[in-house]
Amino acid sequence: MLQQIEEPCSLGVHAAVVIPPTWILRARRPQNTLKASKKKKRASFKRKSSKKGPEEGRWRPFIIRPTPSPLMKPLLVFVNPKSGGNQGAKIIQSFLWYLNPRQVFDLSQGGPREPRLEMYRKVHNLRILACGGDGTVGWILSTLDQLRLKPPPPVAILPLGTGNDLARTLNWGGGYTDEPVSKILSHVEEGNVVQLDRWDLHAEPNPEAGPEDRDEGATDRLPLDVFNNYFSLGFDAHVTLEFHESRGWAGWAQECPQEEANPEKFNSRFRNKMFYAGTAFSDFLMGSSKDLAKHIRVVCDGTDLTPKIQDLKPQCVVFLNIPRYCAGTMPWGHPGEHHDFEPQRHDDGYLEVIGFTMTSLAALQVGGHGERLTQCREVVLTTSKAIPVQVDGEPCKLAASRIRIALRNQATMVQKAKRRSAAPLHSDQQPVPEQLRIQVSRVSMHDYEALHYDKEQLKEASVPLGTVVVPGDSDLELCRAHIERLQQEPDGAGAKSPTCQKLSPKWCFLDATTASRFYRIDRAQEHLNYVTEIAQDEIYILDPELLGASARPDLPTPTSPLPTSPCSPTPRNGQVFRAGEELIEAAKRNDFCKLQELHRAGGDLMHRDERSRTLLHHAVSTGSKDVVRYLLDHAPPEILDAVEENGETCLHQAAALGQRTICHYIVEAGASLMKTDQQGDTPRQRAEKAQDTELAAYLENRQHYQMIQREDQETAV
């Protein structure tokens, strides 16, 4: 070991992106002469600090003296530690393990301020990795604008948190799961360099607006004066504004990662999305965006679109720069059959202008698109009253204004590349076969979390699902269609599967070959991976709703019927029965703390009383929102559609009681709106019988959405 001290360090497998220690030199702080220091001592303290401040800000403790090499692509990593439920704080340690600590920066410690990037101005082939949400990326791009580096370093993205539409557009996926950092570094190094249009926003007060149109809560300034993704006004901006106000911060618009006032409310992606659904539900019932068309005038490249917008009566208007919007949807769609419009690009100098009604917003989630209005290079938007707007997810309520949108520049980005061939990773030089016959095995989340570092044990814990035959050059997107068809074939391999539980909609592929452990592949990146890259003779998939017990005959499976009458508990399960009764009492009394305590002690959240009522039934009957949200967050998904003895689900009960907020919690968690009780009523019909017409309208809207979604899933293959 001691003999290796004198050996030169190879910098490891990622040497091409690592900044060598030899490039970093400590800089000496400038020393003043004795006479100069005496003169400065006579000066006042205030004058000294005001003159010396900028000089001190320019001084850096070390400097970079690179040795250019065409084989190197040195990388700077900027991590937002607060993104993604604090995922960033965990991943920063992994980057420090692989890279030089001088090339990894914590954005909570001052952001990508000029001195940090200025030091690397002369580094050839420099690349940047932004770890965070789309706001983090925009912040870094704005800093690069200020520095005017020539050439500008391309920026890659490791998406953390929710949304991440820019990351999805550039093939980086919708969020980070557990892909090894080593793989991420390889993707950044191999990625393609592309251009991204960036757009200027200039807003000024509308001089024609009268005093009656003023709103004390409105502002005259936009949160950002440039956008990369989209600028929108109306319904979606209202939802985003409510979400941000409940967080107690204005995001990245102030160029610093703010602390949240209520962080305990938003410590997971599920809860963040639940809140978005809640504010959308409220806006739907109040109809606060229905008169949007009456208060805006839109002129695109000199053409007035206002009459067209007034005919459409949209609740939301979006000026879109990238194909993705609202956490991965594609509102422009594929207008191949419409010769009036071109396919969307993020580097063509054009914006897509789209209008949304409530119907098109619902269809958007199942592959639909909005109303295409135009493609243009310049927009002049005039509002006659205060309207919620958002700029790349940063919302505000903007007073009556005149807004001009024009192209600013193009940013240089890194797009994650697809493998150049479908050849296996092993260098056996064998041609890719025309067809692949692959065994599909399913892994539960419980087993995955416990064993994903032990490949052999995880393979043994997997459950065979069936066999698929796919073309040899198939990517995972095509393979997904074959796997989903597998369970739809009544006489196929899926019917003979040892487990009868259907695949949940949330299943994903596992990479079992390219790293030392299993890791998940984001669904948004399936088209980038070939089947032969992640599997040989067997492909593994992760189903988060499959319980580990389903693979073990000595334990009940998730599809096992729940006991309807625990009146005569045996000594073996008597303690479990008593714990279940305590859980029910806690739900009845709205005792959230007691319920949480019992659950942490091992209590079964699927326990039922003698009438087959679940804890969720009891929580709904008492109107306990906190208990309902806790159960939705922690109980198995089967609880959503569990029925009591009269055939009622918890959603039937909430609709009959007129509990609007609880209804939307249950609906957005995935409950079926098509289930009927013993009288043949759906939840919507129960709301109608309770004479709550607004709730019935909401449930009808979501029921229609579920029907479209089901039809879409049935015909997708």
UniProtKB/TrEMBL annotation:
Pathway the protein acts in: Glycerolipid metabolism; Lipid metabolism; glycerolipid metabolism
Enzyme Commission numbers on file: 2.7.1.107
Claim: Membrane is one of the keywords in the record: yes
Residue ranges occupied by any DAGKc domain in the UniProt entry: 70-205
Alphabetical GO biological process terms: glycerolipid metabolic process; lipid phosphorylation; phospholipase C-activating G protein-coupled receptor signaling pathway; platelet activation
ANK repeat positions: 646-678
GO CC annotations on file: cytosol; glutamatergic synapse; lamellipodium; nucleus; plasma membrane
Residue spans of biased composition, Pro residues class: 555-569
Enzymatic reactions: 1-octadecanoyl-2-(9Z-octadecenoyl)-sn-glycerol + ATP = 1-octadecanoyl-2-(9Z-octadecenoyl)-sn-glycero-3-phosphate + ADP + H(+); 1-(9Z-octadecenoyl)-2-hexadecanoyl-sn-glycerol + ATP = 1-(9Z)-octadecenoyl-2-hexadecanoyl-sn-glycero-3-phosphate + ADP + H(+); 1-O-hexadecyl-sn-glycerol + ATP = 1-O-hexadecyl-sn-glycero-3-phosphate + ADP + H(+); 1-octadecanoyl-2-(4Z,7Z,10Z,13Z,16Z,19Z-docosahexaenoyl)-sn-glycerol + ATP = 1-octadecanoyl-2-(4Z,7Z,10Z,13Z,16Z,19Z-docosahexaenoyl)-sn-glycero-3-phosphate + ADP + H(+)
Name of a matching Pfam family: DGKI
Span list, region Disordered: 30-60, 551-571
Gene Ontology molecular function terms on file: alkylglycerol kinase activity; ATP binding; ATP-dependent diacylglycerol kinase activity; zinc ion binding
UniProt keywords, alphabetically: ANK repeat, ATP-binding, Cell membrane, Cell projection, Cytoplasm, Kinase, Lipid metabolism, Membrane, Metal-binding, Nucleotide-binding, Nucleus, Phosphoprotein, Repeat, Transferase, Zinc, Zinc-finger
Residue ranges with Basic residues bias: 36-51
Places the protein is found: Cell membrane; Cell projection, Lamellipodium; Cytoplasm, Cytosol; Nucleus
Family: Belongs to the eukaryotic diacylglycerol kinase family.
Name of the protein in question: Diacylglycerol kinase
Encoding gene (name): DGKZ
